[in-house]
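Q: How do we represent a protein-ligand complex in a form that can be generated token by token?
A: Start from the inputs.
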Amino acid sequence: MAAGREHFGSSTAATLAMAGSAIGLGNIWRFPYMVGEHGGAVFIVVYLLSALLLSLPIMLSEAVIGKATHAGTFGAMERLAPGSRWKWLGLLTVVTPMIILSYYSVVGGWSLRFFGEAMARGFDAGAESFFGRFIASAWGPLVCHTLFLALTAGIVLGGVKSGIERFNKISLPLLFALMLVLMGYSLSLPGSRAGVAYLLRPDFSKLSPSLVAAAMGQSFFSLSLGVGTILTYASYMKKEDSILRTGIGTAGFDLLFALIAGFVIMPAVFAAGIQPDAGPGLIFETLPFIFAKMGAGAAWLSRAVSILFFFSIVIAALTSSISMFEVGVAYLVEERKMSRTGAVLLLFVLTWSLGALCSLSFGPLSGTRILGERIFDLCDRMTSDYLMTFGSLLFVLFAGWKMDRARVRSELGGDGRLFGVLYFLIRYVAPLAIVAIFISNLIL
Ligand code: PHE
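Then emit the structure tokens for the protein with phenylalanine bound:
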């Protein structure tokens, strides 16, 4: 282990940090609306399968590389394949999380604004148009983006142990507790049963190639794959900690959390008699409207629920954004010999600037199109449809074909049969499936 390099205090701390990276807007914002857009339970079935057969092996590959080298993405490639072209993978995975962070922080900022609104006033009958009006303005979203990114940077500045580890240790258990309370509320609403059925009864006639590609893409995004965050966090694990246990724990928490988020949102959506396929605006447009509508009976309760809900989103988003930020910091500190403070400041300026463009692309810059897309959508699509899948492909190829089998075996641990299955998934199934997603993203 490099001298002076920080590490997580225990394997539980490492699991919480990785689960924190995985659990985020992808679970609370993206997953429910994707379930809604793709016909409910059938999407969840495909999602679970792809998480198990595809995402888990990719995640383990990434983690093996990080833990074997105790270095960030770039350093890991240099150590395992010195002087080769693999270093470009190292660089790619420094840049990609920064692009994701730029637009992620904009959505994090929206969540902060909604949390503030819930605290200050609560949502009323005009709630549905609040979102549209807010994002179309210039300053409000920009200020919120700045605030969210500053919070992220502040936590990362604290370091791996006293910043990242401590924040995750407190916030993740809190987050689960809050979401369980919210789920209880949603399920108690009259008419929520239809939402439960929607999540549990798959309609296989809705199965299609685009659904499968979307479910796989969502499981990549949700598990933070292919962008070096898992690799970097695994590099902070101690030698004796088990990757297998941490990896399975992370994937398990992430799945559980996505399901809980589904059971918070869909029952409420159905109870209010609203269509579940509202798309990306689902939690920002539809939910405040639902809170306002439900508030007619017990205003204090619906107010409390909206406060808890948006607070949970902010926390979940932060546990993910710090993991993206840390990838760049690890690179600048370890490979460019910068101080942690200098690295944090530089990355803050870079991601703030791109994020500002993403934010303004809903307002004053809404007419600006690059490759036919709004700047925000371009950053989102470029990363989740292409860069994440590409990064994931290279990681599994690296672990499955470039690294020594015995090394992978010893880093991964577990019994021989389980290793055999996982190694097969890493070497053959995952690369083929990723290429299939890549092609379908290009043509669908
Ligand atoms: N997994 C995070 C989420 O679900 C997003 C993320 C992507 C985090 C890539 C880190 C890296 O919101």
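The pocket of phenylalanine is lined by residues 21-22, 24-27, 97, 100, 221-222, 224, 227, 229, 320, 323-324 (CB under 6 Å). The chain has a mean pLDDT of 92.
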